[in-house]
């Protein structure tokens, strides 16, 4: 039987008179790639923001790896093992690729203010380990040759990979990706698919928002569909793409 990693039940989120999430319930199993699709404005990114602590839900339950994360702060969520990327790239443009990943790695460091000021041997060893791990992750996502380049000078596809490397630097159990293939060409999308499959093989569960329906159908183990803040379908890709409610609300026709 599959081990449930993330579970939410009866999640509601309102913005004034807008009911952005309406009684959303879903569970994500350890080791799977779980997709979230739906029309623009369906509530997908709002749900991501709830799951990563950026938004506080009004009602519901939220547990992750056996821990209650309902209305927890983002740093608590990250510490528990959820990392994310954003729909709009949020890198430190003037910092190098290596430095961007090192920033992500600092979530797992032990050195405090004293070590940062006095540079004791333990702190220096830890900084060296952070740099080494950041270099490994740049190689892992395929952009090691750009380690010393400013992030803003990287191609769009490489910036997306850099965001993933920075998220992986937090040692997540769950990697949440918000439209990582947006703006990519066919080869970049195929390379991204291979990277996500590698991440999953290496033990990280993935939650994915993406408008590329073909990518989602090829990649995901299960998919949930949101429409006007409500979950209207959930299941394996073949069942979801043939669900009449999904076709009417989102797909328009059954995709090839």
From TrEMBL:
Organism: Chitinimonas lacunae
Record's keyword annotation contains Nucleotide-binding: yes
Domain ABC transporter residues, every copy: 6-253
Regions annotated as coiled coil: none
InterPro entries: AAA+_ATPase (IPR003593), ABC_AA/LPS_Transport (IPR051120), ABC_transporter-like_ATP-bd (IPR003439), ABC_transporter-like_CS (IPR017871), BCA_ABC_TP_C (IPR032823), P-loop_NTPase (IPR027417)
Xref: Pfam families: ABC_tran, BCA_ABC_TP_C
Name of this protein: ABC transporter ATP-binding protein
Keywords annotated in UniProt: ATP-binding, Cell membrane, Membrane, Nucleotide-binding, Transport
A GO molecular function held by the record: ATP binding
Protein origin, superkingdom: Bacteria
PANTHER family: AMINO ACID ABC TRANSPORTER ATP-BINDING PROTEIN (PTHR45772:SF7), CONSERVED COMPONENT OF ABC TRANSPORTER FOR NATURAL AMINO ACIDS-RELATED (PTHR45772)
């Amino acid at each position: 039987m599959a081990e449930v990693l993330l579970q939410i039940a009866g999640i509601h989120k309102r913005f004034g008179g807008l009911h952005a999430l309406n009684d959303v319930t879903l569970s994500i199993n350890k080791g799977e790639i779980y997709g979230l699709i739906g029309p623009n404005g369906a509530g997908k990114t709002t749900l991501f923001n709830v799951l990563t602590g950026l938004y506080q839900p009004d009602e519901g339950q939220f547990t992750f790896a056996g821990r209650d994360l309902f209305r927890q702060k983002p740093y608590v969520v990250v510490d528990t093992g959820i990392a994310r990327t954003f729909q709009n790239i949020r890198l430190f443009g003037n910092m190098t690729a290596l430095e961007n990943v090192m920033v992500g790695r600092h979530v797992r460091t032990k050195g405090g203010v004293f070590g940062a000021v006095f540079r004791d041997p333990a702190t220096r060893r830890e900084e060296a380990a952070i740099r080494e791990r950041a270099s490994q992750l740049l190689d892992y996502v395929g952009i090691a040759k750009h380690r010393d380049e400013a992030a803003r000078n990287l191609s769009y596809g490489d910036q997306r990979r850099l965001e993933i490397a920075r998220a992986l630097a937090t040692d997540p159990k769950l990697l949440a990706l918000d439209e990582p293939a947006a703006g990519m060409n066919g080869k970049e999308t195929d390379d991204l698919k291979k990277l996500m499959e590698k991440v999953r093989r290496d033990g990280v569960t993935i939650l994915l928002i993406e408008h590329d329906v073909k990518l989602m159908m090829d990649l995901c183990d299960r998919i949930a569909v949101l429409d006007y803040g409500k979950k209207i379908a959930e299941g394996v890709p073949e069942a979801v793409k043939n669900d009449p409610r999904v076709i009417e609300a989102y797909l328009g026709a059954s995709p090839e």
